[in-house]
C-alpha cells in the first residue's frame, strides 16, 4: 500500500537535517493520506525558548519501494568479490573492515554514520556535483581514535566520504566523489604525524580505487538483498527503478517515531512500470533536499 511519510524538523530548512519527528500513514484509493499534527510536532514545534522555525518534508512513497538503510549497509553488510588487498582480509568486507585498514593497527573505528549532504558545510576546495533529479548526495562519516606514543594524547577525528547515488537508465550506482578528514586539534607533538598518516593513506590512488570498487559492489549486493525481501512477480530481478529520493533515518514506512539524520540516512527507490496511487504533491521548500 502506498504511504505518505511526514517528517518535521526544528530547523527552517530540511537540508540542515538534525533531529526529526516522523509519522507514516496509508494513502487511500483517491490518493489522499491524513495525519494528526500531534504525531509529528513533538520534536519540531518552535517555542519561545527555541524559536528556530519549523520545516516539514512530505513524501509520497509507492507500494513496491526498495529502501537502502545506509548506516546498516556500512556497519553490518559484508561485501563479497573484492580483491585481496588487506592483511587477513575476510571473505566478505564491511565498511568497518575497510575503515579499520585505513586507520591502521594503532587506531580504533568508533562508528560509521550516514547523513545527507550538507552543501553549506562542504569545504570550499572540494567539487560537488550540481543538484539533479536522478541523484541523492550523501556523506559517510567514519569516527575514529588514534593512539600515539605515550607522551601524546589519543587523537580523535572523522573521515568523511562524499558519495553520489545516481540513477541512470533505471540502474543505481554509487560513486565516492571526494574524501576529507577532520584536522587534528590536539596540541601535542604527535598531531602533525597523525595528519600526515591520514593524508598518505586516504589520498593514495590505491585506496581511492578500492573505495570506488567497494561502493560499486556494496550497492549492487545490498540492493539485491533489499529486493529479495519483496521480489518482483515478473520481469528482471533486480527491477529497474524510475525515481530516487532520500529518506531520514532507516526509511521505515509505518507508525510514528523520532530520530536524527546525524546518525542515519537512507535511499528510497521506486520500481519502474508500476501503477501507484499518489498523494497530491506537498513541497517543504522551493528545491528538493539532498540533491
Polypeptide structure, described:
Helices cover 21% and strands 33% of the residues. It is an alpha+beta fold. The protein has a domain at 70-228. Strands 3-1-2-10 form a four-stranded antiparallel sheet, with helices on one face. A four-stranded antiparallel sheet has the order 5-6-7-8. A three-stranded antiparallel sheet has the order 4-11-9. Strand 6 and strand 7 (155-168) form a beta hairpin.
Give the % helix.
Answer: 10-25%
Tell me how many strands there are.
11
Mean pLDDT: 84
The ordered H/E elements are EEHEEHHEEEEHHEEE
Low-pLDDT stretches: 274-286
- Give the strand line-up of the largest sheet: 3-1-2-10
> Structural class of the helix and strand makeup?
alpha+beta
From the alpha carbons, calculate the radius of gyration and give it in angstroms. Answer: 20 Å
What is the number of helices? 5
Outline type: globular
List the helices and strands and how they pair.
Layout: E1 3-9, E2 19-26, H1 37-44, E3 55-61, E4 65-69, H2 70-76, H3 95-103, E5 107-116, E6 135-146, E7 155-168, E8 171-181, H4 191-202, H5 205-228, E9 241-248, E10 255-260, E11 265-271
Antiparallel strand pairs: 1-2, 1-3, 2-10, 4-11, 5-6, 6-7, 7-8, 9-11
Care to give the gist of this entry?
By secondary structure, the chain is an alpha+beta fold.
